Amino acid sequence: MTMISLGDLARNLMLQRQTSATHSRLSRLTQEIATGRHADQAAASRGNLGPLLGIEAALARIGGWQTATRTLETRLDTMQAALGALDGIGGAVATTLLSAGSATQDDQVDLAAQEARSHLDAAIGILNARSGDYSVFAGARSDHPAVISPDALLDLVLPLAASQTTAAGVQAAIAAWFDDPAGFDSQAYTGGAALAEIWVGPEQKAGLPVTATDPALKSLLAGLVTAAVMDRGILSDDPVQRRELAGRAGETLSSNAAPRTALAARIGTVQARLTQAQARNAAEDSVLGIARSGLVSVDPYATASDIEATRTQLETLYTLTARLSGLSLIEMFR
User: Fold this and answer.
1) With contact defined as beta carbons under 8 Å apart, do 139 and 122 qualify?
2) Partner of 192 for a Cys bridge, out of 77, 139, 287, 314, CB 3.0 to 4.6 A?
3) How far, in Å, CA of 164 to CA of 169, rounded?
4) Are residues 187 and 212 in the same domain?
């Protein structure tokens, strides 16, 4: 029977521990060369994680700002596109109504009123436009449409118009209802207050500054409604007053062009601020990313050298173990 001395046992245990430690080191180095990052950041930084945690927190803040700016940018783009479509409607219907106002044929006024009614449907549809699940002109009540349906809107206005006998009276009654906070804002607008601004960068906020209650948008609707009520029979027994009302509605839409342009410019100003914020955030994100990389990344050349040295050490340990136990290296891996 072969006798094993205590010295042999101690030497074998020592070799096993060294082999296990070297194998673990090789596994760690292999992981680091594959990921490019320290496997144990605390050990690599000697326990001083403050700089890394500060950078990570700053990057998280920037990521939140960038997400907010992208969301807001998408909504502003939708709003700007909607304003462009509304401007096209206002210009086209104004031309038709002004032409009908100077026409001698009554059917031209009828056709203009029908066109205004059709474009009123389109305009309200645009004001109820959504960006994803967000109603862009509805302010804080983004889950609601901004404006009631065209038929419901006309139903509210018709009694006011029907009580008038002149074009001037009809126009004034409709304009007063749109201007009165107890009128359009309370009865036809179904959104909420304009959204509060949100942070898009350090010490910088931005928001959606417009709802369907903006005076430029209400003026557009007022012009369309003023013409559309004729399609519901207003002043039907007075062709002269109908032509005058068509002309007045056309003038309202024509004069509304400048406020619509100013509104688009206001939104464009917010878009420009967002672009600046995104550029600034992206630059800071890049700088911080480089700084973080310097803290967490390993030197690929040094790590590759360590891997080669560790492999050599491991092979030596296997060889020693095999000699001491009378085993071959191949048998060590079985």
Assistant:
1) no
2) 139
3) 5
4) yes
pLDDT digit string (tens) for 243-291?
Answer: 999 999 999 999 999 999 999 999 999 999 999 999 998 998 888 877 7
User: Residue 112 sits in which domain range?
Assistant: 54-286
- Buried/exposed 6-27: b ≥16 CB within 10 Å, e otherwise: eeeeeeeeebeebbeebeebbe
Q: Flag whether 134 is in a domain.
A: yes
Cβ contact 197:61 at 8 Å: no
Q: Does 329 lie in the same domain as 181?
A: no
Q: What is the pLDDT of residue 288?
A: 83
In this structure, are 212 and 316 located in the same domain?
A: no
Say whether both 250 and 139 belong to one domain. Answer: yes
What distance in Å separates the CA atoms of residue 41 and residue 54, rounded to the nearest whole number? Answer: 14
CB-based burial of residue 250 (10 Å sphere; 0-12 exposed, 13-18 middle, 19+ buried)? buried
| pTM assigned to the model | 0.75
Report if residue 294 sits inside a domain: no
How many independent structural domains does the chain possess?
Answer: 2
Bridge partners, 134 (sequence order): 131
pLDDT in tens, 300-332: 666 566 667 767 766 676 666 666 665 444 554
Q: Are 230 and 174 in contact (CB under 8 A)?
A: no
Tally of CB atoms within 10 A around 100: 28
pLDDT at 235 over 90: yes
In whole angstroms, what is the distance from residue 158 CA to residue 151 CA? 10
Domain identity same for 210 and 317: no
